[in-house]
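Moderator note: this is an archived Q&A kept for reference. The question asked for a predicted structure of one protein chain; the sequence and the answer are reproduced below.
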Amino acid sequence: MTTYITVADVDALLGATWTTEEKKPRAVLMANTWLTNLHLPEFDPVPEDVIQAGAEVAREAAAGNLYGAKETGVTAKSVSAGSVSSSKSFSESSSTISAGESFALALLAHYLGSGQVKVVRC
């Protein structure tokens, strides 16, 4: 795993009260794991936008919004009350992305690329 951010980085960006002291190391560990799994390029030093993205993800991790439990095996849910009913079907692989994760992905978009390579002829 690559270390993109530290507790000190997150404290500097979000203020020391972004979560309780005992949650900070695990939240930063989870954020670094999340960033590592994106297969970002190697940085030396780590750019500010990557550190900001990591801080956003660390805040989500501390709040319990990252790597949450997933419900599997259920593909449909329905609710009815009297003559009113509602049903929704979900894919087993569907997941919710938190606001912090979405913001972090937006910050990192230019590092993640589109999967296309620009070819220049010399």
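Archived answer notes: The longest strand covers residues 76-81.
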